[in-house]
Amino acid sequence: MLPVARAAQSLLARGIQHTAVRHAHRKHEPTFHDKYGAMVLLGGAAMFTAVWGYVFTTVKIEWGFSPVGRITPSEWRE
């Protein structure tokens, strides 16, 4: 390996090691998602359920639009 490449690799490895040590000693501060993630998810699920529950109970939706049994065919004319 060339001396320049070896020095660059050593420098890169040393930088990664320093970064890892620095992150290991730092206190973990909770982010927004750590603090409120579950509540936001549950709130969204409750809102979704409430809105669709309202839609399904108040809007007169007719299920099954099939015309079978409602329409009788007319006689064929030649």
Notes on the protein architecture:
It is built from two helices and no strands. It is an all-alpha fold. It has a single domain, classed as Cytochrome C Oxidase, Chain K (Irregular). The radius of gyration is 33 Å and the shape is elongated. The model has no long low-confidence stretch (mean pLDDT 79).
Task: Give a quick precis of the structure.
With 78 residues, this protein is mainly α.
Q: What's the SSE blueprint?
A:
Layout: H1 3-25, H2 32-58
The main pleated sheet reads as: none
| Helicity, as a percent range | 55-70%
| DSSP helical segment count | 2
Instruction: State the end-to-end CA separation.
Output: 94 Å
CA radius of gyration: 33 Å
Number of strands: 0
Notable characteristics:
single chain, 78 residues, mainly alpha, Cytochrome C Oxidase, Chain K, 64% helix, 0% strand, transmembrane, Cyt_c_oxidase_suVIIB_dom_sf, transit peptide, Cytochrome c oxidase subunit 7B, mitochondrial
